[in-house]
Amino acid sequence: MSAHTVLIAGGGIGGLAMALTLHQIGVPCVVFESVRELRPLGVGINLQPNAVRELEDLGIGAAELDRIGLPAREWALVGLNGNDVYAEPRGLLAGYKWPQYAVHRGELQMLFYRKVVERIGPGAVRLGQRVTGYRNEADGTVTALVEASDGTVSEESGAMLIGADGLHSAVRAQMHPDQPPIHWGGAIMWRGTSPGVPIRGGASFVGLGTHRHRFVFYPISAPDPATGLATINWIAEVTMDASEGWKNSGWFKPVRIEDFAHHFAGWTYDWLDVPALLSRAEIAYENPMIDREPIPTWHDGKVVLIGDAAHPMYPTGSNGASQAIVDGRLLGGVLIAHGLTAEALAAFDAKLSGPIGQLVLRNRGAGPFGLLNMVDERCGGTFEDIDDVIPAAERAAFMAGYKAAAGFAVETLNVAPHTIAPGARVAMK
Questions:
Q1: DSSP structural state of residue 273
Q2: I need a surface site. Which of 70, 127, 299, 300 has the fewest CB within 10 A?
Q3: DSSP assignment, residue 368?
Q4: Is the pTM of this model over 0.70?
């Protein structure tokens, strides 16, 4: 392996986007992914305009994203009695230069995987190999400890190691051995997809209910011309007592619809029938809404964390995958400026770890869904005219604050220079 090769732990969205960025800036890399076969698992996610901008600069544009999702047109919160709390246009309709996309998570990962193999080569992703630890060496290189699916253990040397190995990151665990356990605040989510008729603007993200009992849904495909039905991604969520911690087995498992549908009995409106939508799903996945406490640093010598390994966060802001993509792009930018050095990783850490740590805590506090908290506090969740509960200016200011913290305020993003200038490369020494 070349002395300039960068090792990446994890072949999820963040790790594969990182590989594409390294290839773009002339840095050889190899990805170690624990699963033996990549499959398009998961359900829907959102890509915010700041991430779509970066994908466009990577040569992944609308034509390919349209095959795995569709541009979002609206973001809305609706009270339990069916009245709007807040609604705003999204993506191009909101004045961004780039759209916001609702896509299938697994299909996005597979798109990135195909691009990595096409551009770098079939050996760029080593499946069935998990990075279990690392050593910073005296000569400035780093050694990754790799365990294969058959139990064999090997060591790989590289210029640096990027930990993109998710919530249960082994790289993070070594870097911060005394980190607190996974944090669960009491919310349980059931996720799935069902065929349904798109509502409102036809590509609307809607959060319905209260901050402790809500249903979120949005289409991730265009309607079928023959049936008029799109694939609707949904998240059913209930907050419970978390004082005794998470007692169920595992963090993500398939469940039957009837195991949780009773929480949403009676959620029927003239524009939406939640029980009927749930009944059309073939399967659902249960997982607690979890994150980790922010850590003081994301780097250790020639090792750095990105994505969920660095900042696992509640999915209340629809920006987990977006931030993972942006992480890799910003890291690529500092590598161009500082080379494959520990100083580059320190600069990346100084720029992001503090602000994104605060974003983790903001999302734990309900993120943009915090407006529903305010409605509950002021009127118990039932109202006729939202302006009598939270004036329009206050609602707009709340959302503007969240967008600024998450890095996709329209007035800032539209005038920002390229994260990586066209043609920029890392100077190899």
A1: B
A2: 127
A3: G
A4: yes
